[in-house]
C-alpha cells in the first residue's frame, strides 16, 4: 500500500507538472512578480519536460460561473472570485453558446455581450457543410466553479475539455485551455515544423501573426511566418480524426502542454470555435473546406515546371537562363520575372533600359507554348501614375486614424498624398508607398486594382500573378538604422514610426503581445516589419489591430479577379500571406527559405500542412531562395519539387545561378524527374479537380490513407500524392538509399499493397513495413503505387500545351486480396477541361469526367469500363494503350473487344513479360472516350495461372 500510495503521489505530481498554464508567457518571470500575479512559483526539475514554466496559474480557480439563460444552448457567464487577469481587466459577464451548423459542424462561442470585432464578419466563408456519420455534442458543466465545457463524440470520447481551467477574457487578452484525446496533433500555422506531428514531450509556444519573416530550419524555431491558420487536426487512438478551427484574426498563439493539451491565446475578437467530426482524416478536410471554401482549380499549365530568379540584371539575362534550361530538353512551362523587371520596383511599369522589349518576349514565350507569371507587390509609390489613378477613382489606402497622427516629415514630400491620411511606409521602391485597402466596402479600391492589371496586360501579356510583401511588409518600422540604409540600391528615406507611448501606444504595444513579438526579444512590437496596428482601413471602420492578418487574404481575392479580367483566362495567383479560405483564390509558396538540407526536409512537411489548410497549390522555392545551393542538394530538391503542385526554382540576387542547366547532373536528373511529373499531369490535374469539387487533399500525410496503421502517424519524410502514389524522397546529403515505410492497408475485404513506380524493380510488389530502397542520383525519387489504382497518364512533352495534344494511357494496378489471382479490381478517374477557362463554379465548368473500372475474373477474363459523364470538354485526347502490373499471363490478343466488337491490337508494340508480369497493350487505333456513356474493353487469357516466381522487391 505504501508503494502504491507513493506511486500515485508521484503520478499526481507528474501530471500537475505536465499541465502547468504559464502565468508569465511573455518571459521575465521571477518569484516575486509571479506571486504578485496570484500565481504559483515552482522551479522545474531535471525530470520535467523542456519548457516547463516556473510560474504558473492556479488554473482550477480561474474562470467564470455559468447561469442558464433558459435556452438550452446558451449560458450567461459571470467572472468568479478567482485570480484576475494580469493583462487588463476581465470582462465581468460573457455569453457562452453552441449550435450545430448543418450535418457536420459544431460551433462554440464565448463572447462579450457588447459587439466586438469578429473575423467571421469580414471573411466570406460559404459556411457549407458535408454529411457525416458522426455528430458531436457539447457538455456544459455549469455546476462547477469555474464553469467548463467538453465536446464529445457519440461514443463518449472527449475531444476538447476545458476543465483544466484558465479561461480569461479581457479586452486585449483572451485565453482558453483544453486537454486532448491523443498526442497526434497536426497543423496550426504558419510556422516551420520539423516534424509533421506536434511534440508533446515539451511545452512549446507557436506565434500566429502575419509577418515578413523567413523560415529557419536550423533547430527548433517557433517564430510566426507569413500567414495565420488557427486550424488543427487530431488523430484519435482508434484511427478516427477530427478538426478544430478557432476563427480569430488578431495576433494569437498556441502553447502545447504535455498532458496532452494546449493553451490558446489571442489579443482581440472573440472565441469562435468550430469542430469538424470527420471521422476520417479526408472527411475532416472536406468538412473544413466546405465551410471555409473549396480551393481554386489552377490552370493546367500552372502545374508545369517554373523558373524564377530575383536578381536578373536584364531581360537578356533572363532570356539566357531560360534558353539554357530549354537547351537540355527539360519540360518547362513558366518563366518568371521578379521585381527586377520594373522601373525602380514600381508596380505596373517596365524598366526602360535593361528590360525594353519585355512584352514582346512574353509573346514569344506564348508562341513556344510557355507562360509568364509576374510579381506585383501591394505597395504603391506615392508619386506616379498608378497612385494618382487610384486617388482619382476613389480608391482607399491603409490610413492613420486622425490627421494629427500623420508623419508630416514624410507626407509633405508627396503632393499627391499631402492632404490625405494615407500611411506612407518604405518597401522596395525608392520613395514612400501606400498599401491599398482591399477591405474597402465601396469596392472602388478593388476596381482600381483590377483596372491597373488590365491596363498593364495590354503592354506585358502576363498569364498569372505572384503577390508578395502582403503581410503587409514595411521596411524599418520604428528603427533608427534600418537595413536599407546600408543597401546602395535603396535611398536612405525615413521609415514609418508608430506611437510607443501615450494613449495611442496600446495598439502596437498592448498589455500582452503574444509569442509573435516576444520570440524576437526586447525592442520589438506588433508593428515590427509591418505597418502600425493603430492604422485603419475599410474607410476608417476597421482597425488594423484586428484586420492585419486578413490583408494577404483580401489582396488574393481581388487579384484573382484582376487576373481573370486582365487575361480573360483562369491563370493562377500565388500569395505569400494566407488565411483560412485563401485557397479559394490563390496558391502559396513556403517563403524565403534557405539552400540547406534542413530546409529541403521542412518543405516535405510544409506542403502537407498547407493541404490541410485548404491550399493544395503549394510548394517551396526549389533549391532554396537564400544562400548558395550545392549541386547535390539542388538535384534532390528538383526531384522532390517535381511532386509539389507549385513547382518553381527560385533564388535571390547576388547568388550563383541555380537553375538545372548550371550542372549537367542536375539537368539530367531534372529532365528525368520532370518527364515523370509531366507523364502524371492528367492524374495530378484530376486530384486538383477533386480538391476543388470535394475538398480533397493533393499532397497528403500517409495516415490519410492508412489511419489505422499507427506507424504512419509520425511519418515526416514521406507523403502520398493523392490516394494512389507513395513518395519517399531522398533528403539527406550523401544519401544513396531511403529508409521508407510501406504501410499495410486493410478493409473488411481488401488488403492493399504497393508496387515500385521508379527505376528500382519497376512494376514489382514491395515488402510491407520498413525497408531500404535504392536512391542514387541517377534514379527518380523512390515512388510506389497502391494496388487497386488506375492512373491516367500522357507522354511527357516540353510544355503542357504540347503534352495536352498527346493521347492518354492508363496504368492499371489491381488488388490481389489473397495472392491467387482470383477476382481483382482497380479503379480511377480523369477530369479534363480546356485547362485555362475561368472557373466561377466548378460544378458548372464545361468538362469531361471519366471513371475507369477494371475487373479480372477467376475465369481469366478482363473487363475495363470507361464511364464518361458530362462530356463537355471542347477536345479530349484518346486512349492509346494500357499498362497493367502483376498480370498473370499473356493475353489472347485476338480476344480483345470494344463493346462486343473486335478491337484491333498493335501486336508489334504490345508485350508481356512473364518475369515482371507487366502487360502493355497498344490499340490498333486510339480509342476515343469523349462522348457520354460507357464503353467496355474486354479480353481473355489462357486459364492456366502461374502462381509461383512472383517477383517481389
From TrEMBL:
Source organism, top-level taxon: Eukaryota
Subcellular location(s) of the protein: Membrane
InterPro entries from the UniProt entry: Gal_mutarotase_sf_dom, GH, Glyco_hydro_31_C, Glyco_hydro_31_TIM, Glyco_hydro_b, P_trefoil_dom, P_trefoil_dom_sf
Pfam families registered for this protein in UniProt: Glyco_hydro_31_2nd, Glyco_hydro_31_3rd, Trefoil
GO cellular component: membrane
Signal peptide: 1-15
Domain named P-type: residues: 11-59
Keyword annotations of the record: Disulfide bond, Glycoprotein, Glycosidase, Hydrolase, Membrane, Signal
PROSITE patterns: P_TREFOIL_2
Molecular function (Gene Ontology), one example: alpha-1,4-glucosidase activity
CDD domains with a match to the protein in the record: GH31_MGAM_SI_GAA (cd06602), GH31_N (cd14752), Trefoil (cd00111)
A GO BP entry: carbohydrate metabolic process
Family under the similarity heading: Belongs to the glycosyl hydrolase 31 family.
Annotated protein name in UniProt: P-type domain-containing protein
Amino acid at each position: 500500500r505504501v508503494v502504491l500510495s507513493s506511486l500515485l503521489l508521484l503520478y499526481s505530481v507528474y501530471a500537475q507538472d505536465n499541465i502547468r498554464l504559464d502565468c508569465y508567457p511573455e518571459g521575465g518571470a521571477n518569484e516575486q512578480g509571479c506571486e504578485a500575479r496570484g500565481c504559483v512559483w515552482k522551479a522545474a526539475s531535471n525530470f520535467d519536460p523542456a519548457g516547463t514554466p516556473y510560474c504558473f496559474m492556479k488554473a482550477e480557480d480561474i474562470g467564470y460561473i455559468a447561469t442558464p439563460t433558459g435556452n438550452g444552448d446558451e449560458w450567461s457567464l459571470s467572472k468568479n472570485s478567482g485570480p484576475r487577469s494580469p493583462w487588463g481587466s476581465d470582462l465581468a459577464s460573457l455569453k457562452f453558446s453552441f449550435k450545430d451548423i448543418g450535418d457536420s459542424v459544431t460551433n462554440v462561442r464565448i463572447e462579450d455581450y457588447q459587439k466586438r470585432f469578429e473575423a467571421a464578419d469580414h471573411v466570406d466563408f460559404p459556411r457549407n457543410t458535408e454529411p457525416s456519420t458522426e455528430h458531436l455534442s457539447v457538455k456544459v458543466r455549469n455546476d462547477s466553479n469555474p464553469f467548463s465545457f467538453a465536446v464529445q463524440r457519440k461514443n463518449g470520447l472527449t475531444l476538447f475539455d476545458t476543465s483544466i481551467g484558465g479561461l480569461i477574457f479581457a479586452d486585449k487578452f483572451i485565453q482558453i485551455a483544453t486537454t486532448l484525446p491523443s498526442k497526434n496533433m497536426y497543423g496550426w500555422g504558419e510556422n516551420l515544423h520539423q516534424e509533421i506531428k506536434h511534440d508533446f514531450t515539451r511545452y512549446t509556444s507557436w506565434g500566429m501573426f502575419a509577418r515578413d519573416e523567413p523560415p529557419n530550419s536550423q533547430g527548433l524555431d517557433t517564430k510566426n511566418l507569413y500567414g495565420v491558420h488557427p486550424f488543427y487536426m487530431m488523430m484519435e487512438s482508434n484511427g478516427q480524426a477530427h478538426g478544430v478551427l478557432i476563427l480569430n484574426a488578431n495576433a494569437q498563439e498556441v502553447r502545447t502542454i504535455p498532458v496532452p493539451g494546449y493553451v490558446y491565446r489571442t489579443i482581440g475578437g472573440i472565441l469562435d470555435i468550430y469542430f469538424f467530426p470527420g471521422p476520417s482524416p479526408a472527411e475532416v478536410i472536406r468538412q473544413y473546406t466546405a465551410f471555409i471554401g473549396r480551393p481554386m482549380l489552377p490552370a493546367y499549365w500552372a502545374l508545369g515546371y517554373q523558373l524564377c530568379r530575383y536578381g536578373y540584371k536584364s531581360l537578356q539575362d533572363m532570356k539566357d537562363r531560360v534558353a539554357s534550361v530549354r537547351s537540355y530538353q527539360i519540360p518547362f512551362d513558366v518563366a518568371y520575372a521578379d521585381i527586377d523587371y520594373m522601373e525602380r520596383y514600381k508596380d505596373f511599369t517596365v524598366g526602360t533600359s535593361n528590360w525594353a522589349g519585355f512584352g514582346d518576349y512574353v509573346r514569344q514565350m506564348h508562341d513556344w507554348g510557355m507562360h509568364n507569371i509576374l510579381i506585383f507587390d501591394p505597395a504603391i509609390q506615392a508619386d506616379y501614375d498608378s497612385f494618382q489613378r487610384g486617388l482619382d477613382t476613389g480608391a482607399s489606402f491603409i490610413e492613420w486614424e486622425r490627421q494629427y497622427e500623420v508623419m508630416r516629415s514624410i507626407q509633405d514630400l508627396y503632393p499627391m498624398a499631402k492632404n490625405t491620411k494615407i500611411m506612407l511606409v518604405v518597401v522596395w521602391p525608392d520613395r514612400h508607398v501606400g498599401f491599398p485597402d482591399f477591405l474597402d466596402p465601396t469596392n472602388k479600391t478593388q476596381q482600381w486594382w483590377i483596372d491597373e492589371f488590365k491596363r498593364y496586360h495590354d503592354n506585358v501579356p502576363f498569364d498569372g500573378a505572384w503577390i508578395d510583401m502582403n503581410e503587409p511588409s514595411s521596411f524599418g518600422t520604428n528603427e533608427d538604422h534600418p537595413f536599407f540604409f546600408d543597401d546602395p540600391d535603396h535611398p536612405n528615406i525615413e521609415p514609418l514610426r508608430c506611437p510607443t507611448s501615450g494613449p495611442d501606444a496600446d495598439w502596437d504595444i498592448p498589455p500582452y503581445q503574444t509569442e509573435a513579438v516576444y520570440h524576437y526579444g526586447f525592442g520589438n512590437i506588433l508593428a515590427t516589419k509591418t505597418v502600425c496596428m493603430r492604422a485603419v482601413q475599410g474607410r476608417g471602420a476597421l482597425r488594423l489591430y484586428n484586420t492585419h492578418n486578413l490583408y494577404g487574404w483580401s489582396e488574393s481575392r481581388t487579384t484573382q479577379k484582376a487576373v481573370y479580367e486582365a487575361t480573360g483566362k483562369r491563370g493562377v495567383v500565388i500569395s505569400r500571406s494566407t488565411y483560412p479560405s485563401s485557397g479559394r483564390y490563390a496558391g502559396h509558396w513556403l517563403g524565403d527559405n534557405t539552400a540547406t538540407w534542413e530546409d529541403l526536409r521542412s518543405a516535405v512537411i510544409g506542403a502537407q500542412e498547407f493541404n490541410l489548410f485548404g491550399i493544395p497549390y503549394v510548394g517551396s522555392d526549389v533549391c532554396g531562395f537564400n544562400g548558395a545551393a550545392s549541386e547535390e542538394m539542388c538535384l534532390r530538391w528538383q526531384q522532390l519539387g517535381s511532386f509539389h503542385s507549385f513547382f518553381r526554382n527560385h533564388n535571390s540576387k547576388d547568388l550563383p545561378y541555380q537553375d538545372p542547366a548550371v550542372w549537367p547532373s542536375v539537368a539530367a536528373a531534372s529532365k528525368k524527374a520532370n518527364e515523370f511529373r509531366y507523364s502524371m499531369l492528367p492524374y495530378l490535374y484530376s486530384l486538383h479537380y477533386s480538391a476543388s469539387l470535394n475538398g480533397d487533399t493533393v499532397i497528403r500525410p500517409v495516415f490519410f490513407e492508412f489511419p489505422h496503421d499507427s506507424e504512419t502517424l509520425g511519418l515526416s519524410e514521406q507523403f502520398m500524392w493523392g490516394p494512389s502514389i507513395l513518395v519517399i524522397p531522398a533528403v539527406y546529403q550523401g544519401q544513396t538509399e531511403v529508409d521508407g515505410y510501406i504501410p499495410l492497408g486493410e478493409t473488411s475485404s481488401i488488403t492493399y499493397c504497393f508496387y515500385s513506380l521508379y527505376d528500382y524493380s519497376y512494376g514489382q510488389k514491395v515488402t510491407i513495413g520498413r525497408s531500404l530502397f535504392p536512391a542514387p542520383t541517377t534514379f527518380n525519387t523512390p515512388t510506389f503505387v497502391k494496388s487497386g489504382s488506375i492512373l491516367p497518364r500522357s507522354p511527357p512533352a516540353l510544355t503542357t500545351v504540347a503534352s495536352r495534344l498527346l493521347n492518354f494511357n492508363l496504368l492499371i494496378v489491381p488488388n490481389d486480396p489473397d495472392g491467387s489471382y482470383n477476382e481483382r479490381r482497380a479503379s480511377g478517374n480523369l477530369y479534363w477541361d480546356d485547362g485555362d477557362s475561368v472557373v466561377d463554379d466548378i460544378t458548372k465548368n464545361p468538362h469531361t469526367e471519366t471513371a475507369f473500372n477494371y475487373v479480372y475474373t477467376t475465369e481469366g477474363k478482363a473487363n475495363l469500363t470507361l464511364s464518361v459523364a458530362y462530356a463537355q470538354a471542347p477536345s479530349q485526347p484518346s486512349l492509346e494503350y494500357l499498362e497493367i502490373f502483376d498480370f498473370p499471363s499473356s493475353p489472347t490478343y485476338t480476344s480483345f473487344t470494344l463493346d462486343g466488337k473486335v478491337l484491333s491490337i498493335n501486336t508489334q508494340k504490345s508485350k508481356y513479360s512473364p518475369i515482371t508480369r507487366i502487360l502493355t497493350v497498344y490499340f490498333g487505333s486510339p480509342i476515343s472516350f469523349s462522348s457520354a456513356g460507357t464503353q467496355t474493353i474486354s479480353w481473355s487469357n489462357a486459364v492456366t495461372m502461374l502462381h509461383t516466381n512472383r517477383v517481389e522487391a
